[in-house]
Structure formats: C-alpha cells, structure tokens
Description:
Distance between the termini: 7 Å
Strand order of the largest sheet: 1-8-3-5-6
Structural class: alpha+beta
Radius of gyration: 16 Å
Shape: elongated
Amino acid sequence: MIHQQTLTIPARGRGTIEITGEVERIVAESGVRVGLCNVFIRHTSASLIVCENADPSVREDLERFAARLAPDGDPMFRHTLEGPDDMPAHVRSILTQTAITIPVSAAAPALGTWQGVFVWEHRTSPHRRSVVVTVMGDG
C-alpha cells in the first residue's frame, strides 16, 4: 500500500517549523501499520531535520551554528542573485537534508520520545514550502 500527500508550509523567514503532527496525521490516514514514511522538501534553500522538540533553544543554537558556517553576505559567494542570504541558504540546505525516512510502527511514525520533524527555512524572507509525504507498507 502506498499513500502520498503534499503539505504547503508557510515560513515567515529563517527558522524552524514543526511538522510532526502533520506527518503523524498523514501516516494515520494512510492505513499503513508497518512500513516507511518518506518526507521530502521540494526546495534548494530549505531543508528537513529530525530534532529535539522539547527545548526550542536546541533549534536556536542550530541556527547560530549555521550562521557561523554560512554567513549571509560572505564575499566568498558569487551566487547572490536573490540577495545576501541566497547562497548561504543553499549551503545550509545541502549540509542538512532534503529527505527523511522514518519507520512506521503500529500505524504511527516510530520517532523517539524527544524527536520532532521540522522544516528548516534558510531564507530570511517569507516563503511557502512544499513537502511531499509518502507512506509505504502493510495495512
């Protein structure tokens, strides 16, 4: 059995947006009891992470770390067509993930106690992000 839905995620700018609940809902609607859930973001300047969802300072620290690795306006970058955050957003996306696969067990994503699924927006301006969730397995 295969089930697929696309989520549209509004991002207000750089930062994380938790989508764990939406992924759980799609898995539940799929009818799959045991299998895999693939989450894929269709962009090159945003990414997906599985991260602690209890303490937001974890994600704030990740943002500060990413800013140090790929700072906006770094003169090393030639690709600046969409502004000083353009190439740093691409670097951040490449260093993280555009797809995550989560086991499905007992008709739910088999995430750990403190794990959540997040879209990590790397651009500073608002965007609408498309995330494809595909659930495969046995009912």
